[in-house]
Fold this sequence. Notes:
Six copies of one chain form a homohexamer.
Chain A (H helix, E strand, L loop, with lengths): L4 E2 L6 H4 L4 E2 L3 E6 L5 H14 L4 E5 L4 H10 L4 H6 L3 E5 L1 H4 L7 H15 L3 E5 L14 H21 L3 E7 L13 H4 L2 E10 L2 E11 L8 E7 L3 E4 L2
Parallel strand pairs in A: 3-7, 3-8, 4-5, 4-6, 6-7
Antiparallel strand pairs in A: 1-2, 8-9, 9-10, 10-11
Amino acid sequence: MENLRVKTGIEGLDSFIEGGFPKGRVYLVAGETGTGKTTFALQYLYFGVEYGDSGVYVTIDEKPERIVEDALTLGWNLEKLMDENKLLMVELSPYFSDIKKVDAFQIAENLRGYINEIEAKRLAIDPIAPLVARSDEPLTSLDAQMYVRNYLRKLFHALEELGVTTVGTSEIPTGTKKLSRYGVEEFLASGIVVLKLQMVETGFRRELYIRKMRGVNHNMGIFPFIIQPGRGIIISV
Amino acid sequence: MENLRVKTGIEGLDSFIEGGFPKGRVYLVAGETGTGKTTFALQYLYFGVEYGDSGVYVTIDEKPERIVEDALTLGWNLEKLMDENKLLMVELSPYFSDIKKVDAFQIAENLRGYINEIEAKRLAIDPIAPLVARSDEPLTSLDAQMYVRNYLRKLFHALEELGVTTVGTSEIPTGTKKLSRYGVEEFLASGIVVLKLQMVETGFRRELYIRKMRGVNHNMGIFPFIIQPGRGIIISV
Amino acid sequence: MENLRVKTGIEGLDSFIEGGFPKGRVYLVAGETGTGKTTFALQYLYFGVEYGDSGVYVTIDEKPERIVEDALTLGWNLEKLMDENKLLMVELSPYFSDIKKVDAFQIAENLRGYINEIEAKRLAIDPIAPLVARSDEPLTSLDAQMYVRNYLRKLFHALEELGVTTVGTSEIPTGTKKLSRYGVEEFLASGIVVLKLQMVETGFRRELYIRKMRGVNHNMGIFPFIIQPGRGIIISV
Amino acid sequence: MENLRVKTGIEGLDSFIEGGFPKGRVYLVAGETGTGKTTFALQYLYFGVEYGDSGVYVTIDEKPERIVEDALTLGWNLEKLMDENKLLMVELSPYFSDIKKVDAFQIAENLRGYINEIEAKRLAIDPIAPLVARSDEPLTSLDAQMYVRNYLRKLFHALEELGVTTVGTSEIPTGTKKLSRYGVEEFLASGIVVLKLQMVETGFRRELYIRKMRGVNHNMGIFPFIIQPGRGIIISV
Amino acid sequence: MENLRVKTGIEGLDSFIEGGFPKGRVYLVAGETGTGKTTFALQYLYFGVEYGDSGVYVTIDEKPERIVEDALTLGWNLEKLMDENKLLMVELSPYFSDIKKVDAFQIAENLRGYINEIEAKRLAIDPIAPLVARSDEPLTSLDAQMYVRNYLRKLFHALEELGVTTVGTSEIPTGTKKLSRYGVEEFLASGIVVLKLQMVETGFRRELYIRKMRGVNHNMGIFPFIIQPGRGIIISV
Amino acid sequence: MENLRVKTGIEGLDSFIEGGFPKGRVYLVAGETGTGKTTFALQYLYFGVEYGDSGVYVTIDEKPERIVEDALTLGWNLEKLMDENKLLMVELSPYFSDIKKVDAFQIAENLRGYINEIEAKRLAIDPIAPLVARSDEPLTSLDAQMYVRNYLRKLFHALEELGVTTVGTSEIPTGTKKLSRYGVEEFLASGIVVLKLQMVETGFRRELYIRKMRGVNHNMGIFPFIIQPGRGIIISV
């Protein structure tokens, strides 16, 4: 069954989840702002290439050129990977700039094109929340909750059918105990890795834990980690 | 009266509730994401077959094939049970993908078909929340609460009339002190088992307790448990 | 004045409130799910019969046959009382299944019929919250609060005119510090007994206290209690 | 200036506020349910008669006959005072039973009639919150706040012009840190006495403090009190 | 630069802010009910007269004659100042009694008249919140926030153009951690003095601190204070 | 790569972020009222001039002349810089005084004019929140969140295209754990510096930390700082 696992690219993390993410599903990396979600998503794709998997990186709030620039400070040359057709950087902002009414299937259909283009095995969506497009009609608060759930369920199922293993970043609204923007994403994903900034005496410490991993007898610990240029996220065990 | 109890399939739990769930009612397994609700629901059906009861597993957010795959990692071969007509995996997502206006009775009617098909004695609905379909009209917040309560009451009563004993999973919104998505499910169910992730020094510990069990003089303790491949949920007493 | 008190049927409780509930009013038994509200309501009627009072039990969310079944596990044979015309089990669900627009006076009028049928002195409504029927028009949040208060005031006044002493169960939304679903019930009732599950080291302990009792110099203590088959709620003093 | 103070009727309290309430204004007695607000209001009127002031008691949620009954258990014979035209019990419920659109001036006008009838010097309104009548149009949440404030300001000013000194009870929503239902009453009243149930080891203790008293250099302490038959609220200094 | 500061009239406070409020701006005195906001505003004007500045006192919720009466208990004879044309008491309630749609500029225009009448240098508005008049159209919650901010910005800028130095009282909703009714006032004002009731062992202690003071290197301490007849607010350093 | 960093002007801060802000992006300085956000923004521009960069200061809630006045108390002569065409003070209030419907691109277009006028390299927007203009239609709460995110994303991207490095101040609603008014700003910005008032024994202490800095291996400590006339924000390491 070894070959059904997708290595995360995060040193140490794979051993906590029996070798990697079960293949072909959608996983969340959840954290408040500044916790390292984008680094995680990049690392997942960058080392994915080392493992032989091409990857597509979908960005909504950030310009792709910015991501490329930031990755360089981590020692990761994305442009090289892009030139080799092992990485595709996709910006979806225009779809949402007018809160256009986009269907979950349309988005998945577009992504299929990019995935096929480089025969990608990995997909990173950074972040998931703004992918939820406006509904056709004004929704009361009860209906809005149902709408978001249905929208994301369709999107996640469609992503699974694309054959890729997806890592989506999930914004934890600052200062809350939630795991996601809408409060339903975590119930729809197959697994969740949580990144947090833990306040200690005179500053902050980075911590990571696995909150959920369907079909995996995962480690239940909370682990400190650092982000190191050239290596990215490194877990201290 | 021994024969009026339905064994839960969770080692240890039955002894806490005088032998099992009182037959023919609706029970909730409540927990945040990643607490083991799906494992509980599967275990309830899987060991149910060992006790001679066929079961229907209803899934809304997850594809049945995923559930089957995950069960395998717990050592449970669901396909075998499905082939023997002792288990039926049902996906209800399509009903809700367009927030269609579905009636509680319609859903129960559909379930009746599946139950009759394999003469099921056990039903698992994972999760309950998305079964609440959109109402015909936009509802203010006061009316929405009444609507959800009425909808779920009708559904629960209809399920009871189907003759099965139902375990429904109830999502506790992450970081809240609630027991359910809408805050009324727990008042309508005949019993509630709560699963939680208790933060301890350097990680999390799984815990379980019985919050409510109508007609049962149940144990009031909080118990640690583990999820073990091949055996599922095991309570440490 | 002894004869103006209605014994609660709960051993010990009567002594905390100078002999019993002042006659002819509406009292709340408030608690989260699983705290013993239904047991309290049943005990109030069951022992009421022993004291010579017939009683009407109104259920909305639960089927009467379920209540009868559960009471048996407490050693209380309700069917016998029903056969002797000392107890009437009434299910009001159908009234509310379509969120019909029902008036508080209509409900009281219906109850009058049942009360007269067995010359009941005691009434239990389990629970109160779903008795609030939908209003004729959509209400903003300010108006909704006024509507619920007016509705319940009319209902409570009407119940008092029926000549019975009423115990209504009040759902405390799980995890909140409220005493009722709408936040106004406790101000309209003549008294409140609170049941709670107090978390202690390795489990839960049942506790009871009197929060309010108009016209009574009541005990201010918090008391542990157990629910024992054959005897129901027993307070440890 | 001694003669410009209105004695509260609560032993001890007068000494905390330089002899009594400054005359002719509106004061709040704020507390959660069961804290003794009605006892305070009754005591204010009952001992007012001893001091030579007639009083009007306005009730909205409770029937006047209930209040009379409860007062008896405190040793206060209100019927006698009513027969001597020193006390008038007024029920305003009918005004609000249909959430009729009543103007603050109309209410004050009605009260003027009752006040003149017995030349009352004291007025008790128990409670204030339901006096806020429905507005002519549906209000958004911003407008609703402004509406309630304007409504109550007009009512309070009108009450002051009636020449009486008013004690209104203010419901603290259970479990909140508020001082009133709408959150503006306390800013409009000339003074506030807070009653609370303080949880101590094995039960509750009654406590009282003065939160605000315009034009008075009031005591800043928190004091335990008891409610004693025949004497009412007694502060332990 | 000494002459560009406006003395607050509160003994001790001036030394905390380099001699007084920077001239010609809008300051908030924020506190829950009963914290001494009105005393602060009165003291600001009363001692202002001693310093040679005439002042206008704007009241919305309270009748001016009440304010005059209360000031007397603090030993401040406002009527004398009014007779000498050094103080003007203005009641703005009528403007808002029907939630009329008033523009921020209209209010400022009216105030200009009063200010010119006595060549006032100081203005006190007690409180600020009800000055926000109703908008022309119903506003969703997002728009309401923008509306209030724009309304108050215009009002504050207009007040600054009147050449006076303004102290406005800001109601802290009881039991919250906010500094104002709408949550934007503190960002628009040039400075904030906070008054609070700090619960200590057996009662409350008054405390004051400077939360913000643009252009001033202010003291960062929290100071106990008392309100003394004849002297008003006295800070213990 | 040294030349791609923009010095912050805050002594000590640059060393925490590898020499300065990565060039050409949008950064937030987040804090409650009175924490020093405006001082930070001014210091960023004032010392920017010393480093050879001209700057544009955009103000919405405050009049530019006030800012100039306050800067003087910090020893910074802005008028001199304005005369030398090294600083431009821009007031955007009029755009928003009628909650006009302004597009994010229009605002950016206007800013381009000012930036070109003095060939600015730095831009300060104080604060960001009121820049979000009203939408064309009333928005439900779900749509409002999407609208604000899309609006700010467009604005931030447009600002980046102007070639300047932007510091925007972000209001933390008083008493909350948020980092911004709308809860999305922090996810859209490239970095966040947080300023806070930490309550210590008898007063407040100013503290600063870096919460997020894309592409920078930033310091994770929390540092006390003071605001000193002539020097501005000084961090104690």
